[in-house]
Design the sequence.
């Protein structure tokens, strides 16, 4: 079965292996079996967990789509970090807590009994180029980032571990419960150059904003053009808990797969970019959210993996 969250229409739908619609799970509302803001889903020992910030709860449905239970969560939305992270057979959720001088970002592992202990996220490198934040005359805030600058990605791996990486080098560190490095995964990738056409396209939204809002107060006025693109795009776990590394090189997109000990087990070509949204890979099927070439609407495409 394939479960698809449609946040625009506030539905959670189940499809079979052929792509045929099976049923809608739950419905709009605030009672048991209902949700206001379906946001992210993950499997929990055979049950379906649904992050619902609109009702500030994490709902659990069984395989038949029946309501099981729910747990309260923080009312967080926005950004790629705020979601449920697959760590088979369970998952972790993003959260934060207030500490002296600010806040601390956390992963919260879940089991059938509810939330477990928390894991602090690794700090971001301080030398990475930050985005540009602008205060507009209409009192709204706009934020822009450099699509070709190095960034920092990290995901929980289960068992108190997490994987972290800078995207400008093929080097992934696995941190243990104490935050110490227990494993390093490295690979090869030749980065692609940032061409004039790439840079123009990447800066189009920023340049349009500057024309539309010439009096906006921004904390910076320009981005630094790097000579090459980052070689790592994304990290995620498949249904068996293996680490998938999305690599972008001069040869195109590929996915390298590693087992729990960091040993390479596969390299997969022919799949689309994830665009920062975890694909669902179970067995020999991989489901990706892509843009329809005709309507530009979001669609789910399922690929069969060949040995």
Sequence:
């Amino acid at each position: 079965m394939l479960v698809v969250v449609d946040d625009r229409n506030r539905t959670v739908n189940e499809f079979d292996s052929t792509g045929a619609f099976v049923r809608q799970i739950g419905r709009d509302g605030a009672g048991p079996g209902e949700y206001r803001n379906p946001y992210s889903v993950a499997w929990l020992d055979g049950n379906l967990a649904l992050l619902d910030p609109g009702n500030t709860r994490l709902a659990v449905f069984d395989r038949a789509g029946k309501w099981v239970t729910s747990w309260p969560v923080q009312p967080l939305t926005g950004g790629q970090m705020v979601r449920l992270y697959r760590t088979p057979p369970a998952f972790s959720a993003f959260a934060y807590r207030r500490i002296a001088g600010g806040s601390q970002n956390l992963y919260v592992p879940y089991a059938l009994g509810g939330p477990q202990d928390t894991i602090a996220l690794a700090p971001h490198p301080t030398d990475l180029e930050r985005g540009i934040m602008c205060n507009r005359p209409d009192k709204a805030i706009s934020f822009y980032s450099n699509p070709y600058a190095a960034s920092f990605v990290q995901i929980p791996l289960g068992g108190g571990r997490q994987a972290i990486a800078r995207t400008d080098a093929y080097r992934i560190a696995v941190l243990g419960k104490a935050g110490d490095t227990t494993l390093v995964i490295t690979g090869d990738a030749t980065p692609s150059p940032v061409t004039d056409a790439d840079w123009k396209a990447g800066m189009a939204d920023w340049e349009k904003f500057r024309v539309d809002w010439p009096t906006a107060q921004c904390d910076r006025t320009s981005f630094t053009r790097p000579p090459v693109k980052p070689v790592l795009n994304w990290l995620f776990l498949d249904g068996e808990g293996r680490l998938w590394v999305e690599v972008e090189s001069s040869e195109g997109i590929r996915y390298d797969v590693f087992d729990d000990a960091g040993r390479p087990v596969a390299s997969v070509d022919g799949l689309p970019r994830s665009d920062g949204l975890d694909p669902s890979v179970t067995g020999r099927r991989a489901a990706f959210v892509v843009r329809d070439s005709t309507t530009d609407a979001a669609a789910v495409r399922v690929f069969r993996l060949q040995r």
